[in-house]
Amino acid sequence: MRILVVDDDPFSLKLVMSILEKHSFDVVAATSARAALKELEKSTDFDLIISDVMMPNVDGFALLRQLRIGGRLSRIPVVLCTALGDQESVEKGIALGIEGYLVKPITASVLIGKVNSVLEKTRASILVVTDDELARKRIAQILERDAFKVISSANGEEALQNVKKERVTLVLADIGLPGMNGFELLANIKEYSPEIPVILMSRQSKYTRDEVVGAGADDLIVRPFLNTEILLKVGQYYKREANAHTHCR
Amino acid sequence: MQFDYNRLLTATDGDEDLAKELMMILETQFVDQLTNAERAVAEGDCRQLHLAIHTLRAPLATIGATPALELAQALEALANSSDLLNAHTLLGKLRKELEQLTADFVTIRGVMTT
Known about the structure:
The structure holds 2 protein chains of 2 kinds.
Chain A: E1 2-6, H1 10-22, E2 26-30, H2 33-42, E3 48-51, H3 60-67, E4 78-82, H4 87-95, E5 100-103, H5 108-122, E6 125-129, H6 133-145, E7 149-153, H7 156-165, E8 168-174, H8 182-192, E9 198-203, H9 209-214, E10 219-223, H10 227-235, H11 239-248
Parallel strand pairs in A: 1-2, 1-3, 3-4, 4-5, 6-7, 6-8, 8-9, 9-10
Helix pairs in contact in A: 7-8
Chain B: H1 5-11, H2 16-43, H3 46-62, H4 66-80, H5 87-113
Helix pairs in contact in B: 2-3, 2-5, 3-4, 4-5
């Protein structure tokens, strides 16, 4: 898990970084909001941002506003870690879409508790959409065994609701769905949030990869499939997680 | 001792090496932020004074340096109210507190290495 820590106070930055590193997080430090935005220009590959509020030039709230403009950055959860414990600051943070608020001084146990709870809550969710109950269960099992959080839907309408209310980071959808079919669901998802990758699933030889990609999908999985095929396709979108599991085995 | 070493150790989850490193960082930070604060007071710049003192607030609270923390909070309040009349006196007191803390850090580090 990769975390960007933003703080102009060297003491707090060192404390937070050391605690996180001790708990095996991969930490990148930024000593200002501008430095944080530069880091995010280089890579958006962060699972969490922990930011101070009162910093010179650009403060933590202004940084949050930048992050929430849209695209991939708006999907990175943010925890504010600040000496400002007043209700107004907390509410301002909540209005800007933060996932957590820590009031300094902090201790190692409080920090790790908050980080873990936010990461658990915002963990990458894969939405699996198929009316075939057995397939739904099987795909969920394969993915959950690889530490992914899975949400399932039996039809397109329900899937679209889930995309709107959950933090969905990838969709695996059958083309042959009752009601709203896979292509219609794909169009709706891409209209709502174009950055969510959608992998369509089809029975053998019904559609080619070119056809589904031409329709706006990111990839095609042909059923029946092997467990490893699902993990490989999904792993392309979650390179870090896939690598982490490779090291464990 | 003008601070609570055990409180710092609670923050670091008992990591004495990290506590030592943090004390060394703070020594530099005290000098830097006092310089910034004194410049801000001389220039009548409330915003800069607030920023300089605010940066010290979290570290002072983390190490349980109550007298220094109270002075920092009082200075922050002055900066917020744009009334720097007593700022020079408070800053002088804060300087003395931070110098004492620095001396405490040196003592603690000496004990740690023996």
